[in-house]
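Sat 14:20. Reprocessing the chain from the morning session after the first attempt stalled halfway. Input below, unchanged.
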Amino acid sequence: MSTQFNELKVSKVERLTENAVAISFDVPEDLKHEYTFQPGQYLTLRTEINGEDIRRSYSICAPLDQDLRVGIKQVNRGRFSTFAQDLQTGDALQVMPPEGRFVCEPDASGGNSYLLIAAGSGITPILSIARSVLEKEANSIVTLAYGNRATASIMFRQELEDLKDRFLERFHMYHVLSREAQDVELFHGRIDVERISEMTGKGIVDPEKADGIYLCGPAEMSLALAGHFKNAGIDETKIHTELFEAPGENKPVVISEETRKAVEDGVDVEVVLDGITRKFVLSDEQDTVLHAAEKSGLDLPFSCAGGMCATCRCKVVEGEAAMDKNFSLDDWELEAGFVLACQSRPKTERLVLDFDAT
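Finished this time. Tokens:
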């Protein structure tokens, strides 16, 4: 999979809400194979704002076999999300090919049951999954619980209603609004473990019978529900969680004595990327591998830089490194020596990382 950016032109801009837009991209014929995606994956977008290179990842909200499209909701002090609100047809952005592990691969032969739970802009990958499953799996049932503040803030509201009209018998959708009264009190408030438990008790959702459970929204909500379902005995492999932000407050990084000692005379770092070996020196204990590479002029692949997306995943083939945090690598990857460059600090005076390893 390529981690190189390509310039793509904006083919369409749709205003979803007062502070959210959907951006579609025109992919040249010779690049279409690179931008084939699975429902649930994301794109990393890149541009320059006030002279600074800014990258952000946004989930693809299009179903299979449709043009690339992402939904972008403006967030407070969000430089890229604010910039994106004014994008116009014909504008160009640097776009990395699709990535991500929060995926669903529709099976035309299956009659499955899916439980999708989203809040706010977490609907973007969920919409792609819902449409793809309903259109590709003729006998499958999709249940969506979607939380927002009010009706006016619901992203893709009309698209979701149209989807419900198309698949009346197979798509069950429930809006939960925190700042707007509902006819049914159960649907007034925030989506949390208590509310989903009550919906389960009333037979509105049935996690135990779901072949796949997909959670996307605030980290607190998604992680709490994932834990709830696991504690209820649901097979862990059926539960899929996508995080847009790191959970909890940012805590000060504690630099280990091993790292302090390793960087005293500078750590020789060697990386293998796209078959090419590059070298740089990490000499500041405050730097992660990614940050040190940037300072040396080396452009390593990354997106969120927060330990959540795994775009900067690489394998330690020589030396040792420790991560500040990790929200994306599985246990088997950790055991195999994989790390996230955005979170890694050297523990040895030489470190060799392979970004091409799979």
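The radius of gyration is 21 Å.
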